[in-house]
User: Fold this.
Amino acid sequence: MALLAADGIDARYGDVRAVTGVSLSLAEGELLALVGANGAGKSTLLRVLAGAHRPFAGTVAFRGEDVTGLRDFERARRGIALVPEGRRLFASLTVRENLLVGAGSRRTGRWNVGSVTEALPMLAPLLDRNASQLSGGQQQAVAIGRALMSNPEVLLLDEVSLGLAPIVIDELYASLAAVRDGGLGVVLVEQDLDRTLAVADRIVCMLEGEPVLEGTPASLSREAITDAYFGHVAAPAGGGAGGPGTAGDDAGAGNGGAAWWS
Amino acid sequence: MVVVNALVQGILLGGVFAMAALGLSIAFGILRVVNLAHGEIMTVGAYIAAIALSRFGVSVWVSLLVAVPLLGLAGYWVQRAMLQRALRIGELAPLLVTFGIAIIIPNVLIELFTTNKQAIPTGGLAVSSISLVEGVNVGVLPLITMAVAVALIAATQLYLSKTRNGRYMRAAADDWETLRLMGVDHRRVYALAMAMAFGIAALAGVFFGMRQGGVTPYDGQLAVLFAFEAVIIGGLGSLWGTLAGGIVLGVSQTLAGVVSPELPLLVGNLVFLAVLMFRPTGIVQSKVAV
Amino acid sequence: MAELVPGHVRVDRLRRRMIATQIVGAVVILLLALAPYVFVPAVTSQWIKLFYLITLATVWNLLAGYAGMVSVGQQAYIGLGAYGIFVFNDLGVNPYAGALVASVAIGVIAFGLSFVAFRLRGGYFAIGTWVIAEAVRQVVVRFDSLGAGRGRSIADYTEDPVMRNLFTYWLALGILAATLIATLFLLRSRMGVALQSIRDNEVAARALGIHVGRAKRIVFVIAGIGAGLAGSVISLQQLGVQSPNQIFSVSFSAFMVFMVLIGGIGTIEGPIVGAVVYYVMDLYFSQMGLWYTSARWACGTSRCSVCWRSS
Assistant:
């Protein structure tokens, strides 16, 4: 049985389709990466999985149980944690307090302030610092640590490396490898293809709200992925699928071209 | 000596204003709701004390044990059932809901208890005083009020910084959507904060009533303005600022009273408007964002 | 040309409807102006209240519905309008002309007060306007010549009660017409577009280069003048001010909020409908007291949630 399974997800912002007919499943201990250009619907899909965005159609199942009707805080209590895009730290709280609020779902497990600081060593000297005084990389580490505090079974990571220096990203990815044990399933949204290929067990490439390519890093050639990324194969990049748009505006997606393989 | 006396009385008067301001400050700091009915909640608290005394012979202090939890519950309910919905519509909708409550409550009170002043006798407390020096007497009741105000502010500060729910409240003020992702239902947190605000308002109302020897249905209008002025003078978002703001307001009123007995309210308002004009961030800079 | 561009047709139709509405409105006002020749004064003087209610509702709607400023302190200007009659009457100005002169003075005062009020926004703006209204009342009652805390009656007034009623009627109607025309004009102008963008998103409006402060200030002053004129009418009708607490009462703001919410906030016709509903309810149900007030408010609040969501 899959840890987390989405079936036929359709998500919209008003009349704009952001995600169309996505089905995917995540096994225990697996790291699934969602890649795709800006506006491909990745972030929206993560928000649907976390319960922060109500899908127009489709179901989400967690350990075989239908959780589509559960709201975001109820899903967090089941063990689905989302690290939101833009980190969204509580700016007036200290790092320690941010971590403590992260334990709001009151799930027990190996993660507490001590073990999180061990796994993310850059946090150790910052615990009593105000969250608003941190650099981008430090903020991202807090956001990940805060999500771990809920002792999740599924960790949804949105744009971990966005706007960060490469050296900081290296550190974060190193920590990420360290926290992945005990069957934690991870869904990672990432723009950086090289890093994704290095860490992912499986990759789903999305284009204009639909999955266009799926496979293990070994089974996919780079060309296949970049073609899928930009939609070169059948649907020439048009509309929102092409160039570097503004970050995080998945709502602009979904001109809804027919999938090339169907 | 008259001026010194007025100064001392003004500082103590600030205690009751600070207490009134605290609840307003909590509601705004955490929920971004300006509760226009804050004064009416205080009035209801005072009415509970007055009625408990006149109908059941319960002392004011015992009636607090009823008034505070009762209005706390009311605050929880008002938030869950009315304000939470209004918040979804927009920023101005909750304001109008509380304005509605502010208009309805005096009408209900008049219907139930007429417009007569309901006495809140405190035994000898209101008249007993301690003489500091010749010409400067400090009332026992104002002293108690001030002590309670300081204790309340300190307790609120501690609660917000040290307890789990306090942390949730501050986090909800920052970003309630993300708080939900942490497995916390922000509506419950909001309702708890409103319960706190209402409970403190009830307490402040009883002290306000004790000071005035009683309560009328219209006292809330005055009280909400005092509370609001103390919040703004002290500086938005600062808990200890409410105490400073209350004291500034109290001192300006008593000093004006030395000049003419008709002046206190006007001068208090003018001081408020002057602070707003020349120091809009208030006199105390906020450290803890509440 | 028109057949080729469907949007053009719609605009054309909208404009035609608008012109029709304006013609109907002008005719109604003209008929109302002639009404005293048909009905006895006892009937028409009853309508004065309706006229100033519509005026009050319209200007409050302009403030809250279009510029996003919820004020609960408009009673400041109502009171000033009422007392302005005395001030200029004592200087030898006829009370009716005094109402107009006072409105200019009130405009200046509102302009000055806007600098204080605009330090606050949202909910605190609301309660700030309330404090300002209290302060204005407390200043006014300091003047013995204005009757101090006791209120005052108009000293130098037209002798004939029938003529008095007539003049007040026409003044109230004229003020109402002027308010409606000014509102239409304002909303149709570039300012109207600017205002709506401010209400929807003040930060974005600022980024688009709209002079947010200026637009809001103009509305604030107009709303003050409108409320002041309504206050003058109240004073003229009651032959003075019975008590400063009554003319400066926050319940005036409550009435305004109620009328606008029940009619539909952010629309031109909403306040008119709301004022008529309120007027009729007040005429027939006011003796029911509390339950009437409560039901009224519940009604208004639920109405508000409906229209706010749709706007």
Remarks:
- Chain A has one domain: 4-89+150-252.
- Chains A and C do not touch (no CB pair under 8 Å).
- The longest strand of chain A covers residues 16-26.
